[in-house]
Amino acid sequence: MTPITVHTGTMVPLDIANIDTDQIIPKQFLTGVTRQGYGKHLFHDWRYLDEHEQVLNPEFNLNKPEYQGASVLITRENFGCGSSREHAPWALMDFGLQVIIAPSFADIFYGNAINNSMLPIRLTDAQMDILFAELAKNDKLMLTVDLNLQLVKCADHEFDFTIAEHHKHNLIKGLDAIGQTLEHADAITEHEKGLADWF
Amino acid sequence: MAKTLYDKIWDAHIVSQVGADILLYIDRHLIHEVTTPQAFAGLNDKGRKVRCPEKTVATMDHSISTRSLALDACGPANQLQLQTLLQNCEDHGITLYPVGHQKQGIIHVMAPELGAILPGHTVVCGDSHTATHGAFGALAFGIGTSEVEHVFATQTLRQSKAKNLKVEVKGKLPIGVTAKDIILAIIGELGHAGATGYVIEYCGEAISALSMEERMTICNMSIEGGAKAGLVAPDNTTFEYIKGREKAPQGADWDAAVAYWETLYSDADAQFDRVVTLQAADIKPQVTWGTNPGQVIGVDDAIPAPTDFTDAVTQESASKALKYMALEPGQKLSDIAISHVFIGSCTNSRIEDLRAAASVAQRGNVVENVTAIVVPGSAAVKKQAEAEGLDKIFEAAGFEWRLPGCSMCLGMNDDLLKEGDRCASTSNRNFEGRQGRGARTHLVSPAMAAAAAINGKFTDVRQYEEQV
Ligand code: SF4
User: Fold this and answer.
1) B5-261 adopts what CATH topology?
2) Which of B193, B260, B431 shows the shortest C-beta gap to A23?
């Protein structure tokens, strides 16, 4: 994994609750056997007016000129609900979105994001309202996430956020979770010895 | 200290403490073609092996055709994915139940049929409906592909504990109301994300009275309430289901197993972080009207207006959903014409589901300009249904009878809806575009789906029961 401590970038808003992973990357793009190349299909149904991805939907925020180059997505509650497909964070990252800020995330998506060095940051509804309002005033506003200090900085605002200690640690160090677990190989073998055969 | 069922399974699987988390041992790893290729590739890149191939069960279900057994029936991309699974299973010594095998099926239908899922197990799969197996009193949850790779390499996952939520359904279920209606009503009550961070234990008279198949329908949709997993405490119904199956314990092992399984229940004074109670008598046949499973009403309720909801975000979701679904507040479900019916998916494609649908289907014929398909959940379900003549009932009424697979639940094959199509579906997700771009999905029980097929619109199945 790529280590990440601080991220600064511009934002794109999606003021929609319950964005599910079917929406983030629809099923017809799940036939791949690698982790690459999903970005062009991100939000396919919303982003394109046609099936063949030739005609961009000018109404969709990711297509608007003012949000080009954004690396931070700000959105609403329960982001990433539904299917467990890790293709969702792969598509978001491949498109260039490194940070997702929302009041809440679905569990599986949250874990998948962390496992891909993407930052899912939880702020309160009121703090989200402030970010949406600030972005409406200045669509090139920069936002910084400092993982070490657990702070989001934007305009004159500073919001702290919580993140599990081991998630923070792995993100900052860019650690391979499997390698870490394999250090416990003896304990795993010990557990297996205690299992009845029929189990 | 008094423990819940979840606490007991959790404690029995702690391998070691890692910071604030634990390493949880995984007893069964279920895999399919869509969420594993990148995990195998990751293993191969690092020269790692699958630690316990014998605890891994593989099948093909998502990207296969329901019209042909050929792996190339849905195009070269699907074919490559299926062949990648074949090769990976062969390389890593994992038993695969491929298309055409008599035990192949949707992973959450075929694994219990094998007897591979036992009470007290931990079960994971790169698939969010893994919660299905909680019906056996197993802690079962969906994971992402990086975690699939982690389980391959270590047979463990690093986990922090969820909270305990008890959902009790009191009393007896009214006639014509099914397990699907119970779980939709529960999700309606909890809200689409209302159980996020919890493991649900379903209990109460109405739950205990359910068959294993019905319990699987309930646990299956735990994720639709946002829960990590759903559980039902194992009992004689559970033991009877498992007994004699291919991978079930035999002889003296069976007795030892049952003795252990009988300890798997929540202690009387165990503490739950939250308790929700429903009265079975209040539950009606359910139909979703929106684009998440929490947007659900009873069959005789009117479509709600955004202003019926209190907070701004829910109101906004409701108006967006009404627009996508082309529905008006106040409309009656019985006035809404459908174009398609899908009976299938890991929620409702087991033999009892097909029996329930067939008993309604034999009352009429699929109305003109409605397309109705029935997709059994596994080759074993298909065989059993054919032995009972259910396929003939469906075909005589104008339903198509297909080969087992996920099919129109997500449409990774050619079972897709078109823009504007409206489908009564026994699956589990009514998200925008789930069954095809611009298509509209209403989640219902198998009997309700069959009734919609023969009436061309949503119909209260309780009227049939009353005639009997
Ligand atoms: S039937 Fe649907 S929900 Fe179930 S495993 Fe297949 S795609 Fe997923």
Assistant:
1) Aconitase; domain 3 (3.30.499)
2) B431
